[in-house]
Amino acid sequence: MSDTKKEEEIIPQEGQNNEPEPEKKEEQKNEEIPQQKEEKDVKEETGEKEIKEEKDTEQKKEENEVKEEKVEKVTEQGKEDKKDDDVKEKKELTDEEEDRKELYDAIKDLKPEDASDNVKSKLILLSEIHLDKKRVEDDQCGKEYDELQDRYDKQYQEIYDKIDDIVNSTEKIELTPEEMNKYGITETEEPKAIDDYWEKVIINSRYFTITDRDKVILKYLTKVKIVKFPENVVDFRVDFYFKPNEFFTNEILSKKYIYGKDGLLKKAEGTEIDWKSSDKNTTIEKVKKKIKKGKKFINEYKETKVDSFFSFFGQVDDMSFISDEVTFFKEDLFGNQLEYYMDIVTKTKNGGLDEEEDELDDDGYEGGNKEGKKEGNDGKKEECKQQ
Partners of 253 in the beta sheet? Predict the structure, then answer.
C-alpha cells in the first residue's frame, strides 16, 4: 500500500512537471511582445527623427538660398549704385568742371624749370578768362545761333509748303500769252499733280544709293518734309510720304535727328519699315547657292543685306556720316529741290553747287574744301565759335 501511494504521488508530479511548460512559453511570448513594441517605437522614433532632420536640412537649404539671393541682390544693387555714381561723376565732369580740372591739373603738373610760381599764378587767372570765353560761346553764341536758325527755318518752311501746294495741286495754272509764248506752251492740258517730282529730286540729288528696285518704289513718293520739334529747336525729323503701294504698309517713313545739351548731334533714328513680304524688301537680297546632297544638287537661299535707298531708315551704327546727312537736308536738298528736279545741279555733297560754279580749288578738289562743312554740326556753329 505504501508503494501504491508512492506511485500515485509520483504520477501527478510528473503531470505537474509537464503542464507548466506552456505557461513558460506564454510568459516568454508576453516578454517578447514588449521588446518588439519597444523596437518598433525606436524605429518609429528613428524614422520621425530622420524625417525631421530632412525637413530641417531642406529648411536650412531654403534659408541659405534666400540668403544667397539677398546677397546677390545687395551685390547687384551695389554694382548698379556704383555704376550710377560713375555715370553721375562722368556727367559732372563733362561740363565746365572738366575743363577747369584739366587746366588746373596741367598748371599743377608744371615743373619749376618750366614755370615759376609767378607764371603759375598768372596761368590760373588766364584759365578763368578762358573758361569765361567758352561759357559765352556755349551759352550765348550757340543759343543765339539756334534761335536765329530756327527763325529762318520757319520762314523757309513756309516757302517749302507753297512749293508742295503747287506740285500737288490739280487746279489750272493761269498763264499770260507772253508767258506761254516765252516758254513754248501752245496748249493747256488737264491740270494734275507732278507725280514724279520728289522721285526725280531724290534720284538726281545723287546723295543716296538707289537701285532699280528702289526706283520702282520711289514712284509712290509724293512729298518730303522737315518737321521741327517744339521742345528743342535744333531737333528735327525728315518725313517721306508714300501713296499706298504693294511694297510696305507705312504711309510715312521718317528719320529724326536728336541733339544733346552740348549742342552736338547724339542720335539718329529711322522708321521701321513694315514690308509686306521679304521679297518686297529692297534692303535684303536672296543669294542662291548650290549644295550637293548625295548625288543631287539642291538650291539653298541665304538673305544678305544690300545697299538701298531704304537702308537710310535702318539702324545707325556709324555716326560719322550723320552730320553730313544733317547738312544735306538743311542746306542742300530742300533749297535746291527745283534744280534737282530739272537735274541742273551736280553731285550735292559739296553743298549743291551749280555746274557752272563747280571749279577746282588749289588742292585739286571740286567745289572747294568738302570737309569744311562737316565741322561742328553743320559748319556754321563752329564758325560762330571761332569768332
Answer: 240
pLDDT in tens, 161-174: 999 999 999 888 88
Q: Model-level pTM greater than 0.85?
A: no
Q: Provide the domain limits for residue 297.
A: 194-386
Q: Is residue 74 part of a domain?
A: no
pLDDT tens, position by position, 247-293:
999 999 999 999 887 778 888 999 999 999 989 999 998 877 777 67
d(CA 142, CA 381): 7
Asked if residue 232 is part of any domain, the answer here is yes
Enter the C-alpha cell of residue 322.
550723320
Confidence of residue 80 (pLDDT cuts 50, 70, 90): low
In a domain? residue 313 = yes
Task: Report CA-CA distances (Å) from 380 to 112, 262, 321, 337, 376.
Answer: 42, 15, 17, 22, 8
The amino acid occupying position 367 is: G
Instruction: Count how many residues are written for the chain.
Output: 387
In a domain, 105, yes or no: no
Number of domains in the chain: 1
Instruction: Tell me the three state secondary structure of residue 83.
Output: helix
Domain with residue 233: its CATH number is 3.30.1120.90
Q: List, as one string, the DSSP characters of 275-308.
A: BSSTTT-TTEEEEEEEEEETTEEEEEEEEEE---
- DSSP helix/strand/coil, 233: strand
Contact 307, 332 (CB under 8 A): no
